[in-house]
Amino acid sequence: MLKNIKKAGFEERQFDSGEVKLNYVEGPDNGLPMILIPAQAASWENYQKVLVTLSLKFHVFVLDIRGHGKSDWT
């Protein structure tokens, strides 16, 4: 994770549904939630350039969908 993203308060986490673990990045709670879903064959890292700016007004969540990034393959 880029240093400026960590400094802005973003953390990489995982959600375990019992069947699959989904990786995501969550930013600080600075407003309404905003969920970003990367394009096919991409990961949360494709949004690195805009995360800090978006986090100034939103509580940003960026997902790695199943089979992409660090989320489990099924």
Account of the 3D structure:
The protein is an alpha+beta fold and 74 residues long. It has 2 helices and 4 strands. It is globular. The termini are far apart.
Protein traits:
74 residues; alpha+beta; 16% helix
What can be said about this structure in brief?
This protein is an alpha+beta fold. It has two helices and four strands; from the N terminus they run αβββαβ.
In quaternary terms, these chains amount to: single chain
**C-alpha end-to-end distance:** 25 Å
Strand order across the largest sheet: 1-2-4-3
| Biggest sheet descriptor | 4 strands, mixed
Alpha-carbon Rg, integer: 12 Å
Poorly predicted tracts of residues: none
Query: How confident is the prediction overall: mean pLDDT?
Result: 94
Write the layout of secondary structure elements.
Elements: H1 3-7, E1 11-16, E2 21-26, E3 32-36, H2 48-54, E4 58-63
